[in-house]
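Notes on consecutive records. When two proteins share a document, each keeps its own sequence and its own token line. Never mix them. Below: protein one.
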Amino acid sequence: MSEGPPPYRITPDMLTRVAEIAEAIGRAEAAGLSQDLRLRRINRIRTIQGSLAIEGNLLSEEQIATILDGKPVVAPLRDVQEARNAIQAYDRYAQWDPASERDLLTAHEILMTALLDAPGHYRRGAVAVMGQGRVHHVGPPAGQVPRLMADLLSWIGSTADHPLVTSSVFHYEFEFIHPFEDGNGRLGRLWQTLILTRWRSLFAHVPVESLVRARQSEYYEAIRRSSADGESTALVAFMLETILAAVRTPQEAPQVTPQVMRLFSVLDGEMSRREILNALGLSDRKSLRQRYLLPALQGGYVEMTRPDAPNARNQKYRLTPLGHRVRSGTD
């Protein structure tokens, strides 16, 4: 991050997405969806499960729901601790000020309790982001982190640009600085949701993180492109597309497309893309992804067996508890 405001460009496509998101929010608010307690619970579970899955947490939506209810689950202790921490953070985040360093550090402490030796404190050493056996990004020197974070928080507290854009810019800049030893991804996504919620309260119940998980490879590619370009424009464009899909999800989730219903009819246990293609009688992999798998993933009906590696050769897909309920006609 350079001195002064973070570098980014607002393109005509971005302005179109902002208008479309505002229109979708208006429809959702008019329908009273933010008052639907059942939908709010489902989306909170999706949000937490999606954000943690990006970081390699293997808990399912059903297991997150069980933990949310205060019941025990059989799962790795670290995964359970991460879920408990995230539930507490998302329960409290609406009380925090997006421009407050104290609140940011408190949020990190809650998210990383019992996971780090010193949660709630900036890193004191070097940090590198690894992926697929190579270094994707090296964070700025630890000595620069306090100043860089002070500048970023000051900017988010004073900018007059649209929150849909600035929250996405913050998201990228936060990941670029990588101010903590661990937990940067989940905190960056939570803080973007906080900024959006301060703009429109509906975002407290919109599963943006779940859709980021469904588009995980595109998410990382947008971050990579932003780093290569020296500005956050690519990630802003990606996040606006994802936010638009997330805002539409609560309204459109009950209206399952014919393609997704066909996917329901053939999905048996855990299946690979090739197995699904054969079962559907299709030959076009692009069509399978765009018309069948992606809508099912975005709606929370289907999940990956390896969400940490979306393009893994041994990747398979299975119905979520919500998908089972919709397929059986009980939801």
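Protein two starts on the next line and is unrelated to protein one.
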Amino acid sequence: MIKENSITVVQALPSLNSGGVERGTLELGKYLSEKGHRSIVISEKGSFLQQLIDEGSEHLNLAVGRKSLVSFLLIPKLRNFLINNRVDIVHARSRFPAWLLYFTIKLIPKKSRPIFITTFHGPYSVNFYSAIMAKGDYLIAVSKMIKKYVLDNYQVNEKHLFLNYRGVDSKYFSYHFKANKKWIQSWYLDHPETKNKILLLLPARITRWKGQEDFISIIKKLSYFSANIHGIIVGEIKEGKSNYYQELIEKVKKLGLINTITFTGQRSDLREIMSISAITFSLSQEPEAFGRVSLESLSMGIPVIAYSHGGVKEQMIEILPEGLISPGNLNQAVKLADKWVKSPPPVVCRHKFTLDNMLKNTLKIYNQSLKEKRLN
């Protein structure tokens, strides 16, 4: 039910298919609806659409993410929609939708304009196209790394730039969560090669910078210490990445690890896979803006060994600093993994990187921006 002093928020993104930005959109939409506010998402449809609606949000199906001049013909329709629905906040989560909404808002009389908010989800290439994310009335950065990137590359009002860490659902990724017997039986039926093994996990889509090659090398070195080690690589193979996947398979074969490393492809049960793993690895060659899966693992009490850079470093410093290693230092990773396999480190059960904190902070930013607008 919409409450009397509710606000109307529009989130804009290309589509509602799987991804971190999309999940964040759903989480915020659900939270706003539960708090009595009106949540609207403008995007193309996708696999998350029904969940979005079931959780209380409305949806306007427009191709605001299609990078074409024709898309700018949508501006009159968007303008009418924002005016007729008395939208208070427009929150752009992607660059092309941000451009469309930016020009749309400029065509609305100043007193009636919604506040334009953008979120920097990553260190976009610094160019004219990306500059739209710095044109928000208020800006959100998902980590200190991203906040620094914004300040280093764009002229923005620092008072209107907010650090708001992405967070994980600590109820879903609960401390010491264990997969149920039915799931475990099904897993070992599908992957008998992993039974009675010490499982080491790399959750990362198959792409050259995510660290699969380093992980394979680490497993090879660890196999000299223990024949009981087994590596699991969980992640989708997107279109255009099949050649790289074949390179990885060839490396596994060449190193004699065909029975020691399992590629699962995309999985919807990563939480359960984490729960039966001894260690999760974060080996991205480039700094991650945030690094959600490493935080999910830590929230469950599963230790993480991570390259010391980006948003993941920020999490690890607070939760498990001894898990940080120099980027590319495979020997350091092997030494630490061998130590932790024998004697797992304690992982703190409470931290600030929670979904609840992220959602509360987002609504706080909305309310602060509206308060400042009324004062001006």
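For the record: The chain has 13 helices and 13 strands.
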